[in-house]
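pasting input
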Amino acid sequence: MSTSDDVRNVTIIGSGPGGLTAAIYTARATLEPLVIEGEPSSTSDQPGGQLMLTTDVENFPGFPDGITGPELMAGFRAQAVRFGAEILTAKVSRVDLTTWPFELWVGTTDGDPTYRSRSVIVATGASSLMLGLPAEQRLLGHGLSTCATCDGFFFRDQDICVVGGGDSALEEALFLSRFARTVTVIHRRDTLRASKIMQARAFDNPKIEFLWNTVVADLLGEERLTAVITADVATGEQTTRPFTGIFVAIGHRPNTGLFAGQLELHDNGYLRTFDDRSHTSVEGVFACGDVQDDWYRQAITAAGSGCMAAIDAERWLEAKGH
Ligand code: NAP
């Protein structure tokens, strides 16, 4: 990775719908954006964001027959490249937002910065939450997964479970029902958070069962998952269930670690933006997508906020004389 003396106009960190929409807009504004898209480090952590782990996307306008998440993101990326965005497959390891131009390191945290940039658009998204059980680390990829699209195929004709009561949990359960013998949704309450249409589909699916008011207490198996111990929330009573697959779909954490102490966060860890725009607490740094949205968290809202961040960055640079 070469160290550049050039100062970029816009550097976008992240390549989900927010980051790549910002790339399309800033590229068309001839700002020659650099997109540092991330790099694959596990099945649940890939450039392109959470849509890379999604099966059918049916609510993104313009695709009346639906489209898969990876296909949609490939289209976003190709569109950004077509207008001149430069895309780097790497992870930003450090940023310094206290100097201007801002400084970014890739592949190292020492020495001279890899890139300097007049503006930065943060689009680092959010990551899957885990249950916090010690056995999770051991069994991740060995019966435990956060990505039905990636791993569902391996659970053909098996009895498996999904943890969570939101849209993600039901989407995973519906997808997994194509392969598994049974899919049990384990939810800690007796009502689902998921949208009504997803609930209706899950209730109608003969392979999907529900365990209400239940949490996962432990996972059994050394080399591979052999069973799940569940606990009744009211009585604490534990039951060992012979599930050979468990998919955790209990929500997400915003990816803000890079900006700790440099950008203001909300109490729940999401990046703070101001005045209904994409401005962060540092002038010249903008944010879009799920890293700053704990409410809507949709591909279309992430894309919309990416457009906002691009326009805000463009106007800010113009006002600064660039
Ligand atoms: P979510 O809506 O926050 O749901 C998380 C679920 O996990 C909740 O049911 C929650 O229980 C449960 N949970 C959280 N922590 C837990 C823990 N430690 N142990 C057990 N259960 C736990 O997250 P999401 O389902 O990932 O959805 C996020 C957003 O994306 C939502 O706005 C959703 O509509 C959207 N989305 C849309 C689609 C689609 O339209 N196709 C697909 C996926 C996601 P409680 O209900 O008790 O809090």
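fyi Residues 59, 131, 163-169, 171, 188-189, 193, 195, 215, 249-252, 297 surround NAP (CB under 6 Å).
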